[in-house]
Design a protein that fits this description.
heterodimer; A: mainly alpha; two-stranded antiparallel ribbon; 15 helices; 4 strands; 70% helix; globular; B: alpha/beta; six-stranded mixed sheet; 19 helices; 24 strands; disordered C terminus
Chain lengths: 355, 525
Amino acid sequence: MLVLREKLSEIYENLGLPRLIIIAFFIILLVTAAPLGLNVGSLLSDAIRRWAMYGVLVLAMVPGVECGINLNFGVSIGIVAGLLGSTVAIEMAIPNPWLSLGAAMLTGALVAAPLGIGYGVLLNRVKGSEMTVSTYVGFSIVAFMNMVWLSLPFRSGTLIWPLGGQGLRNTISLADSFGGVLNNFMGIRIGDPIQGPFIPTGLILFFMLMCVVVWLFMRSKTGIAMSAAGDNPVFARATGIDVDRMRILGTTISTVLGAIGIITYSQSYGFLQLYNAPLMMGFHCVAAVLIGGATVKKAKISHAIIGTFLFQGILAVALPVANKLLPGTNLADVMRIIISNGIILYALSKTKEGN
Amino acid sequence: MTNISKEYYGNRVLKNVNLQVESGEIHALVGENGAGKSTLMNILFGMPVIHATGGYEGEIKIDGQPAVIDAPHKAMDFGIGMVHQEFMLIPGFTVTENIKVGREIANPTFLSKMLGEDLEVLDVEKMREDARVALDTIGLNIEEYVRIAGLPIGYLQFIEIAREIDKTGSKLLVFDEPTAVLTESEADHLLEIMRLIASKGIGIVFITHRLDEVMAVSDRLTILRDGEVVATLNSKETTVERVAELMIGRKIEKLIEVTGDHRILSDTDIALSIRDFHVDMPGERVTGLNLDVRNGEIFGIGGLAGQGKLGIPNGIMGLYESKGTVKVFDKVLDLAKLGEALRSGIAFVSEDRRGVGLLLDESIEFNIAFSAMQIKGDFLIRLGPISLFDWRKAREHALEMIRILDIRCTGPKQSVGSLSGGNQQKVCLARALAMRPNLLIVSEPTRGIDIGAKRLVLEHLVKLNREEGLTIVMVSSELVELRSLCDRIAIISSGKVAAILEPDAPDAEFGLAMAGLRKEGASIA
């Protein structure tokens, strides 16, 4: 009995109250789904798809936190860079979906890198209030890009408004470029060939690949120096590490991952969403990594993996359950807002020193 | 104040201290850092820190009446004022407002009659007049309506004094290191003002490290050492040398036994050479320092807090902006380049263990291997263009260091934040040694660690020096410690070398050097 209690309290210590509540909530949702006549298998497969789809975006939080800029609310910078890369790839009209995806990611990363460097330089000037500044930088870049989307000189028919002939559409189909290319790679459908749950193997593999890349980086000499700079800047300086440069590096990696993340997301979703769509995405990424157990000072890759699964899993399951229970309401969306903002609030209240 | 005793967490910092100040007397309170001067004054002011840690023993009498002072405002009611070392002034307020804050003169209005005193209107004219009188008394030529922000530092000190003078019914004024930030002529002026205040029948307690000022201005002086009153003397009947000796004097107990010295030290074989060195470290400024450390010696750097001894290592390591010439084994360091000292073979154990010295959340093995990995590229596995951290090698090394330095822990994976101070210090030392330096700088190596760990750390330093010929520079506030293992000791005062002394030099010489009275040793000894 005593051993069990110790075990339980250890688990509690490791997970923390908020994570326990969310795991419990997730299980309750799954249990209620079956008697409501919902297909638990397809709910789970949906959860898995969303997990891998959002994973890279959330992974972008890890280098940001580790290099000391706290939670990168400004990941929207990377997101718009990724969107820009995607539109360029579509404009190039590459028939091979893999090449198209590659072109999108390459362009996205190339746009994201200099933006990330500039953003990192900016954050170095506002040490101590990075999160406030990054939130507004994130909002501003989305607003700025609204103008850019309207005035880009693209000609591709899938991109621009059918009437008027200028400016990009709100939602752009990826069917002719790289839509679903990762999802369908080695994809497995269980049971019914059309309705059965689908496992997007390629998408999961890609997410895992990105995790391994980030993991390798975090274990490299530079990655360790970067973590130290974020953890204790004075210590890092005393070891001859240029803290400001490390912060710029971390910010840039975070931004590039944001670009790759949104492309991964879009190819799975099948559409590019421009204009105000990326506005709150930074918040969702922050919420997910915090649910996974990260703090504003420490984030591990496992936090991103677990956090995304819980956050997206709840959304995937809660929406149909809520619709069954209370038809005609948008309870699920309310739930999502409460969870994502609540967890951000909880995590911020936990930060002891204001850096 | 009679028989005052005070314990902090079982550590007795004041033992039966008696202090009597008569009205109109300037009474100097002298002692090394940590002698108990600040604690005594905190008791006098009823500072919350005293009462939060269990109060004090003994009795305070004012004008013969026993007084209970358990809050700072009570001290003010009794007419005790203080001129602070750090200025307690509000930068955005004017001189008048700062002098009068909390004691404003106000006129009632109809609003205040209805809603209470808080809404009375300030009588700015009258306040200005009062402020003017106070400023004139101390001969400060400054408009009473200018804002504090931007005034030169010397003025701030005088405005503080003006504020204390303006308080009616002051009986006792405490000056805590008032001359520390002043120029020489300002300091002279301040001493004059002190005499003037005393002549009005106000008692003055003058806390300072500068013994020449004490002799110049005080009537009597009390010397504190390790929380005890060593002596109360009439200033006229004693000498600076005598005071210095009493301040330092303690039986020389060697902390460790040093045996088997086969080193050959030569004045031409220099490990570290510093010329015209300036470091801009707040509170520990170094101003134009010259120093030579011989290859293979243990060189001590001592001095009182705030005199700049800590600025020397921090400047060399590039943690604070510095200028001048630093040569390590004939290689000139580029002080502007971060990590230059480390790459030149200097390792540093910082005085700020928890802040600078360690990554508290990380494991022992990681902390020990960190610098060597970053600077020397040890503990790395190379895979083509990327090099990954070699945990296995770091663990092996950590286990060895844990054994050698006797680090008490549950294993190399324990986080250093959960170790005791002494064991943390050993980890810091292990980290520095992992770099296989040819010059080791340790700053306050025994601060806040228990006696057992202290001895082990010091013994290990000596062992490294004797057996491996490692040159060590040791910066410490503990003179006993420096004297028990160093070959030579430089005493730093006002950012310069006041003297370079042999460890068995007389106490008085150390005391005088600390008080900044010996300058002839400032050239290279």
